[in-house]
Structure formats: structure tokens, C-alpha cells
Input
Amino acid sequence: MPATIAANDPGKLLRGGEFYSRVESKLHTDDVLLSELRQPCSRSVPRHEHELAYVTVVLQGHYLEGDHGKMDQLRPFTAVFNPAGVTHATVIGPEGASFFTVELRERQLRELGIRLPSRTTFDHGAGAVLWPGLRLYSSFKRQTADPLVLESHLMEMLGALSRLSWSAATHERTPPPWFSRIKELLHQEFRNNLRMRDLAIEAGVHPVHLARVFRRMEKQTPGDYLQRLRVQAACQLLMDREYPVALIAGECGFSDQSHLTRIFKRVTHTTPACFRRIATSSPDSKALRLESKTRSA
Output
């Protein structure tokens, strides 16, 4: 069955490895199906569902996803998780888009006892799903043969998804009224030097209380969250080969290029220069398929 299918069958069930967009390269193992996808132009894809639960990392272009008239926008270097069987439609912007998808085999999830979120979950750049997804993509693009490297990033992603599921079940992620204002402020002002007392004044709470609540809600400090927003912005600018890394550092709020490199490597496990080479390399016209030696017949 072809990996790319015609968009003429609303309600279509896509099997593992099947997509409406062109598959540029892929890697299938016992545990996971990794695919790099490219849609070269604007397109509206009808309602459909996927056989396997999966994570999509948007690499380039603008992408809308949703159902029943409600569409959420995902910009480059944001991610979304969809459980198996969730029905949705997608709209791809006029310049097309490219994606990296991580499809999760059900057998492995059962063996690990992993509980995934029961509904679509978005990561707009500072959460726990995007970064292991990008680290997995980086290894995938290098055609890393060592299964331990790939599995380490995959387990980190599964752990993040499992924590999201547990938090939702225990209502731990129900935020206080001021929490959305603080996150919005971080997203708007991440290039500037923010202080905890400024955030606390905006929230109307004590700085210690703000730090405690933020850690409980996001599993990271406001400072960590801010740094990830800066790295996300740097990822987008690195897609332009002509943009000097030193200028990108200043544009994204880092003190200098060495500061950008240090934080970037901590978050993505690679350097800005290496990430640029990987993310802007020409897609291989011949799909890569490496089957696990232990795959069952």
C-alpha cells in the first residue's frame, strides 16, 4: 500500500506509514515508525484518522489541524500529539510545509505499560514533547544506526506523554487564573531580560508562590521555559543559511553566540551549526527504510 494517498476519501483510516503528504525518508523499527514528510504547496486535507498514535513536529511552513470547524495553528518548531483513531482535518499554508512524524506501535506501548493522553495535545515550543522530538529528528537525519540513541530519545518522549496523561487525570494541570497571563508575557517578551519579581507583580502573587506553581504546572522553572522559547526562535532563524549565528543570538535574547550555543546544545543535544546543516539539507529523493533485525514476521 503506498505511503502517500489521494485526498479524496473523507473519513479515511491511514495505516502506519501512510500519509497525505509525500514521504521523503523513513525509518521503521519494532518500536516506532519515523517519517519525514513534505507537502510542496497549499492543501486542504479532508477528515481522516490514523491507526497509530503519533507525534508531529512541524519543521517548515504553517499548518492548521482540528475538527468540527475548530482549527489550531502550529508554526515551525511546534508539535502535536494525536491518539490513535482521533478524527481531524488539516490545512497547509500557501508555501507548503514539512514535518517529522513519530508513530508509536501499540505492542510496544502495551509492553511498556505507557498511558498516553486521551485527546490531542499541542506543544507550542516550551513543553516537554517538542525537544525529544527534535533530538529524535536530528538522529534520524544523521541516519544513526545505534538503536540505543534512537530509543533514548523515544523513551524521553514517551515519558513526557505519559506525564501529560497522568497530570490530566489528576487535574494537576488546572492552572490558577493568572497563569495564562504569565505564559503570554513570557512568549511576548522572551527576547528581553525578565525578572521573577516582574512576573510576580503581573500575577499579583509572591515570587516564591509563582515559582512553585510554575514548576508544578510546566515541570520546569520560568527561566527554563524562557530559554526554550529562545531556542525555538533560534531554530526558525537557523533555517535561513545566510543569517549569521551571532546575529541570531542577539535577535533571540542570548547575550552572545557562545551563550546561544551552550543553551542550544543543552536543549537540543546538538549545536546551532549542526542543526542548521541537518534542517536545511536537501531531502533525499530515495526513501530510507531500515527494518529492525528483530522485527517479527
